[in-house]
# Entry
Amino acid sequence: MDIKKMYINGSWTESASGKTRESINPATGEVIATVTEGDAADVRRAVQAAKESFYQTREWRDMDSQARGDMLLKIADAMDAARDELAYLDAVDMGKPLREAECDVDDAIHNFRYYSSLIKAPYGGVYDVNTGFGEMHSYTVHEPVGVCGLITPWNYPLLMGVWKLAPALAAGNSVVYKPSSNCVLSSVKLFEIFDRVGMPKGSCNLVLGPGGVIGNELAENEDVDMVTFTGSTEVGQSIMRAAAGNVKKIGLELGGKSPNVIFADADLEGAVEWAMIGIFLNQGAICSAGSRIIIEESIKDQFVARLAERAKAITIGNPLENPDMGALVSEAHMKRVLDYIRSGIDEGATLVCGGERYTEGDCAKGYYVRPTIFDNCTDDMTIVKEEIFGPVVTIQTFRTEEEAVSMANNTIYGLAGAVFTTDGARALRVIKELRAGITWINCYNPCFNEAPWGGYKRSGIGRELGVYGLEEYQEVKQININLHPGVVGWYEH
Ligand code: NAD
# Structure
């Protein structure tokens, strides 16, 4: 088995220490790749390469934005040609059904195309200003930030990387990218594409290894101008601390515990189907997952019975056979999810269905958990308060709109949320009150490259996707022009 390497300064390289680790297919427990294991020394090498590329050779940064956009299109085309392989790699590395991995690759391709067109249409503001200093024009330009460290989680191995790489590169930055050590295979493939289409040396670097070591070095290194991170709130807090040394720009996309609020007048069947997508897609490993269903008391029993019926019918199996649900990413993560389920039972929630590992047939070798529903939950339970990041949903009831809003907002997180009702005015009232960055009315989880993605409260800082996602990777410069050059006496203005 060849060793999956890092990509630094335009070359494929093993770690300085020579260490490697095995990559496991969570559906079978089998080793699928040997991956080089970098450390802080490798990150420093990659940061130096990015620094040289940005501040000295400047090829990528100074490339005409039309040409830079064209390069992103070449990347998108090459990804399109490698679509099946990229999807296969995410399915065997992470455990998600192949069909879902294919959708992720399509989104990732669209993302490169989207940022290609956005960077070709530069914009800025021009202001006529009349200050005490006389008539002036003031205008703004967008410039790249510099060397950007990008750190991502395992739940969408390719897509979470592309959400950062495409806008960061479009803006002209040089990047050092660190995917989750759980799932690196599609990232290695993506960098093969970068290499093949001719990305300038040092403009894009890939480092592989444990987050606590190489992620931390990226956040701390004072030659890194910006660090953007997607992952847990706890690690996001440590990134903030580590980034303080040189007051790096930061972008944080963190965890969630999002409410899915359902009123009695909602289309019940529709609400059930969207609730399924809200919590069981991607084995529940979605930051925006609708993990807290908050439902009007009068329809709760009917809703839970139907949701349980649908959850029990979910097919579970090897991701390559396209079941409804695949495997959890690792044995450790499966145990974590099962521990949460145990805490739900211990703290008095009613287990409606699931609640255990799934071991039928070949699945006995993998890390599968049955879709799990807990009824009669209360705000003080661990399963209601903490992000589980697995196929586990809690049910709570309300009687009034005010109570529903108050329960929905009773969380440290503020990533996402939804409301289901046929009363349009109520839908808008409730959504407006939700302290969350991504919201849905009568649907759950759709996500678009064009619309900004990010959280309130402890779910993060900044936005990805859309125009906002590009601006995260840009500095804004104000340029002021005196329209009447000449000497202005100090006291005359
Ligand atoms: P994680 O926080 O454990 O790891 C995320 C990344 O950070 C990985 O690459 C990891 O290696 C690295 N890392 C770990 N410790 C580090 C440290 N001390 N310093 C720097 N980097 C470090 O998260 P995970 O388990 O990979 O992913 C799950 C989390 O990601 C969930 O909380 C989920 O909500 C969140 N997430 C958020 C979004 C969003 O858009 N808000 C999207 C996807 C996932």
Observations:
- The chain has a mean pLDDT of 96.
- Residues 3-254+459-479 form a domain with the Aldehyde Dehydrogenase; Chain A, domain 1 fold (CATH 3.40.605.10).
